[in-house]
């Protein structure tokens, strides 16, 4: 059973940056695709980014050019670097591996 723990969320001003981490345990992450999702208050969960086992990345249109997903297989960890943050990026961000989702980390973008 995969276990995921996210961290790195917080309060940031518009235009700021945050880096989220997702530590994967109980499986060897290098063989899995990783996903980031987010859910804003009152809205449906939204896919944000994907990174394949070979490192290929894809993003939802609203974050292209601002967010970067990466992985460090040696650390069994996936990251989401978020730059030029906007108030509409406010949400709980969670990672998913092998159909298992972490508990999420809150990101709030506000002045």
The DSSP helix count reads: 0
Order of helices and strands: EEEEEEEEEEE
Structural class: mainly beta
Biggest sheet overview? 7 strands, mixed
Give me some keywords for this one.
single chain, four-stranded antiparallel beta sheet, seven-stranded mixed beta sheet, mainly beta, 111 residues
Describe the structure.
The chain has 111 residues and is mainly beta. It has no helices and 11 strands. It is globular, with a radius of gyration of 13 Å. The model has no long low-confidence stretch (mean pLDDT 97).
What's the short story on this structure?
The protein has 111 residues and is mostly beta strands. It has strands at residues 3-7, 10-12, 18-25, 34-39, 46-51, 57-59, 67-72, 77-82, 91-97, 100-101, 105-109.
Blueprint (SSEs and pairs):
Blueprint: E1 3-7, E2 10-12, E3 18-25, E4 34-39, E5 46-51, E6 57-59, E7 67-72, E8 77-82, E9 91-97, E10 100-101, E11 105-109
Parallel strand pairs: 2-11
Antiparallel strand pairs: 1-3, 3-8, 4-5, 4-9, 5-6, 7-8, 9-10, 9-11
């Amino acid at each position: 059973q995969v276990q995921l723990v996210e961290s790195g969320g917080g309060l940031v001003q518009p235009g700021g940056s945050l880096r989220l981490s997702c530590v994967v345990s109980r499986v060897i992450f290098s063989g899995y695709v990783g996903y980031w999702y987010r859910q804003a208050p009152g809205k449906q969960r939204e896919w944000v980014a994907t990174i394949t086992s070979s490192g290929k990345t894809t993003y939802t249109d609203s974050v292209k050019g601002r967010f970067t997903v990466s992985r460090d297989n040696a650390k069994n960890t996936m990251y989401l670097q978020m730059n030029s943050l906007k108030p509409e990026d406010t949400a709980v961000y969670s990672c998913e591996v092998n159909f298992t989702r972490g508990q999420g980390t809150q990101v709030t973008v506000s002045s």
